[in-house]
Every structure is written in C-alpha cells, then in structure tokens.
Design brief:
By secondary structure, the chain is an alpha/beta fold. It contains eleven helices and 20 strands.
Length: 435
Amino acid sequence: MLTPSQNGMRLLVAWALAACVVAIFPVLLMMWLVCGVLLLLAFLLDALLLWIPPGFVVARVLPDRFAVGEKGEVSLSIRHGSMRTMKLELFDGIPADAMAEALPWAGEIPAGALAKIRYHVSIPQRGEAVFGAMHVRVAGRLRLLWRRHMIAVSDVVKVYPNYAPVLRLALLATEHRQDQMGIVRRARTGSSRDFHQLRDYRQGDSLSQIDWKATSRRLQLISRDYQEQRNQQIVFLLDSGRRMRSMDGGAPHYDHCLNALLMVSYVALRQGDHVAVQSFGGADRWLPPVKGSHAMATILEHLYDADTTQSPSDFSEAAERLMMRFRRRALVIVMTNLRGEDSDEIIPALRSLQGRHLVLLASLCEGSVRRAVDQPVGDFSSALQHVAARQYMGERAEVLAHLQAHGILTLDVTADQLAVGLANRYLDIKAAGAL
C-alpha cells in the first residue's frame, strides 16, 4: 500500500494553494499545469522505485520468559537487499495490550548493513503471548511516498506470574533478614524442632540445649543445634472460579493469590517441605508434591498459563478430589474470596478435610468494601453503600467465626497483605509444631 509522506503532502497542498493564485492571475495557468505534470511524474517515479521489493531479512530474539508487568528486552536484526540507503519505520507485532515505549522505530539502513534494534516491552497477561508479523514502512528515493510491507515472522513466548517479590525474598531470606520484608521468624517451640548437629556453646544458649554427655567427653560446653521440622506437606487449594476475577490494586484477586502462593512456596521449599497445588472452580489442575529449591521452576511452569473460569467455586468437590488424591497429612491452604453465602458449603467441605489435614483458609477481602465501610457518610447514596458494605463484611465475619469455632485456621486480609500475611502464618504453624 502506498501513502504520501509529509514532504509529498506539503507539495500537493502547495500545488493546490497555487490554484488560488492562478485564479487571480490566469497568465500563470500554463506554469501551474507544468508544475502539476512534473509533480505527477515525480510521484509516479517514486512509486515505481518503491515497487521493487527490498528483500528484508529479519531475526527476532526474545527473552526465555516474561513476567507479568515486568519489562523484557527484545532484539531485532534487519537487513535489506536494496543497493541504496533505505529510510524506514518499523513497528513490531507485539502481543495485544502489551506496551513498548520505543516503538515505532525510525531510521536509515545503509546498503548491505545490518541494523540492530532493541526495545523493552511489558505484557500484562499471563500465559502464552504471540509476537506476530512486523509492519515496515519504506520511504521512496524522492521521499514523496511510503510503501507498507508486512514481514511474516511469528514467535511464542511464555509469560509467568510476577515473581519479583520472590526474587527479592531470595536476597533477604536469611535467618536474620526476613523481617525486612515483614516476614517474622517466631521463636521455636520444642515440638517443632528436629535435632540438627552439635556445636560449641554460644553465649545466650539455654541450659536445655547443652548436651552434657558431649560436654563431659570434650571437657567444654557443647550445645545441640536444632532446625525446623522438614519433609512436611503443603498443599495449596487454589480457587479458579469466576469470583476470583474481582479486581484489586490493578490486578485480579487470582493474580494476587498466585503471587502469595509463589512466595510461600519459596519459603516452604527452603524449609525442606513438599509443595503441591490443586485448582478448583471450573479447573482441575493438579501438581503433585515437589521438593527442593529447584522445584520453583516446576511450580512456575505449572502456573504460568493458569487462569480463572466462568464456573462457580465448588468447595465440596474440591475437598473430595483432594482427599482421593492425597492421603498424607498436610497443611492445606485454601485460597479464595470468601462470601457470606458460602457458609452452607464451605464449612462442611473444610471440616471433611480437617479430619485428615490441618486446614488454613486464606481469604481475600476486597479493598473497595473496606474503604466503603471506613468512608464518612455524606448523602443517601453513600449511606446505602455503607450499610451494604457493613452487611457484606458482617456475613463474611460470621462464616469465619464458624470456621474458627470448628478449629479451622483462617486468614482474612486485603490483596496487598496476603503474601506476607500468609508467609507469616505458615512460619507460625511450623514454629508451633501444629503440623
């Protein structure tokens, strides 16, 4: 497709405006016609030269993986077969809704030269993203016309959940630094400790830590060193139903749950525990227990394209499937957005799990509902909103109270508090030896 350039449009407008002058001075008519013919010939010549295919050779290099909302660098290499310097504009076929501030790219490529273009793109959706055909506009030699070319090249890349908080935790997750992210290490109780090794006595060690037999043999104080219990089972029961599409903080509740799941999984794997994931609510995806720090890649691979469905959340079916799949005692973390109407279904479902497992319900509370409760009432409309929000919160609190009365652990927080709050609760359970 041929389109006029800015230079071409300026010449056309100038020639059209000259017609006004010719209308006043008819003696200039012949000169005006000659200029029009010359302009037409120039456009035809530019179009004829553009008709020759430039023979583009393009290569695109993508990162191995993208994270949602994080910028990834894309590299393009482009060469043309023309014998002249070519001026062009290029727009890469980035995925829908992706953002790339450096596009479109404009520049000149000398004959026989290879142009390398780098730009950063952020993709807002998880799953598989497709980089499609490139769109190129080539300027004619006379710079009067552009010709569009479409370079058929396609690449597929995986977009993973935003695990940047997990990577930051990797730098801070030492015994004395986890508190920098708000994750608090609780004092260990005796029932939660396994013997690790003997070591020299340190100032501050309790008398119960001293191994008196080893002390008598070596004639110096020797203490026992303990570690958290290992090889315990953590199972995430992840709600993928339509309720998890609620938006909070620019992302759906489902994505907030995924980020919290990744953080707690990282902490659990470092503790030597096994992690398994089961989805429910229109999706039945099962990741059997994995162990070791290298297992984070397995969890990411399992979850990168997970998404919500239009189906309702069936807690009873999810509990039955988990009971059939997994018979060892585990900490089952149910991640959902609790509603007041869930009372008749969720309480029996979690109690059936409780017969074999330790159950923790991690429920997301909409930030908009809490803000509606806290904001002052100024008119009738805001009063109705305030009353509806309080009723909604009251129904949820009643369900949570019933669950706690039956010995089921609960965590009810907003999206921005879920990751750290859930990690703290996991460490509390480990420290208490409840599992």
